[in-house]
């Protein structure tokens, strides 16, 4: 079980959006590299990064900020947002990413995801962002008619390392993770699932270490960490204790 601190990048800065709206961005740190190092110093072992501008543009926009993050932390980093081709994937992995997250392309061109998994084994995750139970694409700006589980099942057996599942209706507003739909997805596929969107407090951390959530790879936290609603030391100790009891 991993708690992934999140760095969302907009115009080179660490921000959090409200409900995925680029016009509702709160800037938390103008130094992404410094923020990455701070998370490492707090004891986190992974980092989740999203190029928000890139998600809308369909190509990397905050590349310099991501490079600064990679140079500032020893922790493995996963990146999503604007990664749409095999060349994009190869470029980022060569720059030191642990894995890429494919979102829009997973809906538009699922065959590319499958090919990427073969070419870069263990390095490809799929981001499934849902609004009203349907998958959203292009930086959450467009809704599709595709159901979450329907999309996830397209990648069974393909070698996808994880599915990052975000409930857009909860993202950035601290209402708590949608555990019901997250666990329903985790039950429906063999691919490890990471919960995202709305993690609000230590109650969510306590929920994620319950036995029926053990199938999850972990959860992502953004605003709750930045606002101090989650104490990193307490959260990580809870997770360590749960791992010890399960071992």
Structure description:
With 247 residues, the chain is an alpha/beta fold. 37% of the residues lie in helices and 28% in strands. It contains eleven helices and twelve strands. The protein has helices at residues 32-41, 52-57, 63-72, 86-94, 104-108, 110-119, 148-153, 179-188, 202-208, 223-226, 232-246, and strands at 2-10, 13-18, 21-29, 47-51, 77-80, 99-102, 124-131, 134-137, 142-147, 163-167, 193-196, 218-221. Strands 1-4-5-6-7-10-11-12 form an eight-stranded parallel β-barrel, surrounded by six helices. β1 (2-10) and β2 form a beta hairpin. α1 (32-41) runs parallel beside α3. The longest helix has 15 residues, at 232-246.
Provide tags for this entry.
alpha/beta; globular; 11 helices; 247 residues
Largest sheet: 8 strands, parallel, barrel
Report the order of strands and helices. Answer: EEEHEHHEHEHHEEEHEHEHEHH
Low-confidence stretches: none
Spatial strand sequence of the major β-sheet: 1-4-5-6-7-10-11-12
Residue fraction in strands = 25-35%
Note the gap between the termini. 12 Å
Radius of gyration: 16 Å
Mean pLDDT: 89
**What's the shape?**
globular
Number of continuous helical runs: 11
**SS-based class:** alpha/beta
Helix content: 25-40%
- Number of DSSP-assigned strands: 12
């Amino acid at each position: 079980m991993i708690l992934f601190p999140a760095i969302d990048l907009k115009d080179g800065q660490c921000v959090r959006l409200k409900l995925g709206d680029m016009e509702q961005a709160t800037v938390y740190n103008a130094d992404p590299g410094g923020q990455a190092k701070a998370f490492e110093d707090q004891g986190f072992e992974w980092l989740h990064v999203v190029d928000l501008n890139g998600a809308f543009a369909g190509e990397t926009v905050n590349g310099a900020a991501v490079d600064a993050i990679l140079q500032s932390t020893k922790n493995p980093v996963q990146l999503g947002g604007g990664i749409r081709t095999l060349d994009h994937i190869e470029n980022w992995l060569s720059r030191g990413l642990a894995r890429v997250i494919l979102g829009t392309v997973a809906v538009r061109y699922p065959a590319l995801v499958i090919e990427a998994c073969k070419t870069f084994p263990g390095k490809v995750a799929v981001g499934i962002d849902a609004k009203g139970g349907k998958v959203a694409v292009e930086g959450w700006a467009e809704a599709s008619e595709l159901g979450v589980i329907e999309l996830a099942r397209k990648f069974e057996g393909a070698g996808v390392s994880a599915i990052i599942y975000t409930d857009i209706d909860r993202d950035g507003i601290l209402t708590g993770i949608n555990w019901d739909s997250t666990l329903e997805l985790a039950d429906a596929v063999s691919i490890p699932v990471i919960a995202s969107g709305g993690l609000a407090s230590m109650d969510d951390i306590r929920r994620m270490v319950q036995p029926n959530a053990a199938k999850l790879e972990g959860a992502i936290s953004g605003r709750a960490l930045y606002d101090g609603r989650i104490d990193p030391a307490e959260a990580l100790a809870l997770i360590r204790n749960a791992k010890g009891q399960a071992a």
